[in-house]
């Protein structure tokens, strides 16, 4: 029986556009929320989306990460064993996942709290003083979204204009007062 593939453009070896992203840090740093906003942006953009959180028994203070896949084709598995983009918000996350970024990938990390030499020369590093920038700009605790803003600018895969609608569908009702601060943090990162 012949090969019938609708997504490989005649088996020319081209792959549909897909981004595999991992956001990692301590519980309470907003990794899962950042992933949720990215996933909602992907859905608004008409992409297939996977959002898979992972955290220890203790959510606040324990380790946590969130894998997001944004794809123009069907997603076979929601796991992100290797990634195109890593957003590391603490040193244990950078150490654990740095080697799992594909060659040519991107690593964004919070240089306010991570002081570590770059181990690879086949990826692009973006040190972002996110925690300090958040504090200095009146949005303390939103370093995760400053980093997300920079990620959006670097990836160029999702339109910035989708952020407000994605944020509205991501922020729980009890945190609606944070909507404007969240947008401000993303704008700060996007402008870096």
Within the largest sheet, what's the order of strands?
2-3-1-4-5-6
Proportion of β residues?
Answer: 15-25%
Helix content: 25-40%
Mean pLDDT: 89
Give an overview of the whole structure.
There is one protein chain. With 192 residues, the chain is an alpha/beta fold. 32% of the residues lie in helices and 24% in strands. The chain is built from six helices and six strands, in the order E-H-E-E-E-H-E-E-H-H-H-H. It has a six-stranded mixed sheet, with helices on both faces. Helix 2 (91-97) links the parallel strand 4 and strand 5. The longest helix has 14 residues, at 31-44. The N and C termini lie far apart (53 Å).
Secondary structure elements and pairings:
Elements: E1 18-26, H1 31-44, E2 48-55, E3 63-71, E4 83-88, H2 91-97, E5 101-110, E6 124-128, H3 130-136, H4 143-155, H5 163-170, H6 179-190
Parallel strand pairs: 1-4, 4-5, 5-6
Antiparallel strand pairs: 1-3, 2-3
Entry keywords:
192 residues, alpha/beta, Pyruvate-ferredoxin Oxidoreductase, domain 3, 6-stranded mixed β-sheet, 6 strands
Short description:
The chain is an alpha/beta fold. It has a single domain (18-190), classed as Pyruvate-ferredoxin Oxidoreductase, domain 3 (3-Layer(aba) Sandwich), CATH 3.40.920. Helix content is 32%, strand content 24%.
């Amino acid at each position: 029986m012949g090969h019938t593939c609708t997504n490989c453009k005649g088996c020319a070896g081209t792959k549909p556009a897909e981004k595999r992203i991992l956001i990692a840090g301590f519980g309470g740093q907003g990794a899962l929320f950042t992933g949720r906003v990215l996933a909602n942006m992907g859905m608004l953009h008409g992409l297939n989306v996977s959002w898979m959180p992972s955290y220890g028994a203790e959510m606040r203070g324990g380790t946590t990460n969130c894998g997001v896949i944004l794809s123009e084709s069907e997603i076979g598995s929601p796991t992100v064993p290797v990634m195109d983009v890593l957003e590391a918000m603490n040193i244990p996350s950078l150490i654990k996942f740095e080697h799992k970024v594909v060659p040519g990938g991107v690593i964004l990390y919070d240089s306010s709290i991570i002081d570590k030499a770059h181990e690879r020369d086949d990826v692009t590093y973006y040190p972002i003083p996110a925690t300090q920038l958040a504090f200095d700009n009146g949005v303390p605790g939103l370093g995760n979204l400053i980093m997300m803003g920079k990620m959006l600018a670097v990836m160029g895969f999702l339109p910035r204009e989708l952020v407000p609608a994605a944020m509205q569908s991501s922020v729980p009702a009890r945190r609606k007062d944070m909507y404007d601060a969240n947008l401000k943090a993303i704008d700060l990162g996007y402008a870096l």
